[in-house]
Amino acid sequence: MLCKKWLQKYAEPIKYLVFGVLTTIVNYLIFWLIIRFFGEGSALAANAAAFAAATIFAYITNKLFVFQSRSWKGAVLLREFFGFVGARIFSFLLEEVGLLLCMEVLHVERFVLLRISGLMVAKIALSFISVLLNYLFSKYLIFSKKKA
Predict the structure, then answer these.
(1) pLDDT tens-digit map of 70-100
(2) How far apart are CA 33 and CA 29, in angstroms?
(3) Which residues on neighbouring strands pair with residue 112, listed in sequence order?
(4) Which residues are CB-neighbours of 5 under 8 A, at least 6 positions away?
(5) For the chain, how big is the Rg over CA atoms in Å?
(6) SS3 per residue for the chain
(7) Closest of 138, 123, 128, 147 to residue 88, by C-alpha
(8) pTM
(9) Half-sphere exposure of 48 (CA within 13 A, CB side)
(10) Cβ 76 vs Cβ 70: under 8 Å
């Protein structure tokens, strides 16, 4: 009974985390594949491609399953979509700048942690910041029930 109440209370953040993990898998898979085929010098382009694919996936899953925005009115869709993409672009730019600093200033590619390249470690750390920002933007600005 207590577990059921807890799950109901935290259903939204739990769903956000589940779909966030899936979105992250999409992002990392595309990032890794591009790096694998084109080298670490393509990290910024790889991050951009990974961002685009993950953003489309995230918008669909967040709208339908996490925040359960059921309105298909044109004005609502436009507001949600452009707000969602705008917030993602903001967090993406933070991630791009962070990766650039990690590469050009900190030279993280020199390091390896648990057989993971320093570049991937930097990407993981920057992703945590992006996930938090994206949840806050989505919950309070984009899919807010008050604006629907």
Answers:
(1) 888 999 889 999 999 999 999 989 988 999 9
(2) 6
(3) 117
(4) none
(5) 17
(6) CHHHHHHHHCHHHHHHHHHHHHHHHHHHHHHHHHHHHHCHHHHHHHHHHHHHHHHHHHHHHHHHHHCCCCCCCHHHHHHHHHHHHHHHHHHHHHHHHHHHHHHHCCCHHHCEECCEEHHHHHHHHHHHHHHHHHHHHHHHHHCCCCCC
(7) 138
(8) 0.71
(9) 5
(10) no
Matching residue, tokens 């993406």 = 92
Dump pLDDT digits (tens) for 18-34: 998 899 899 999 999 99
pLDDT band of 1, cuts 50, 70, 90? low
Written as six digits, the tokens of 57 are 């996936």
Instruction: List 116's β-bridge partners, or say none.
Output: 113
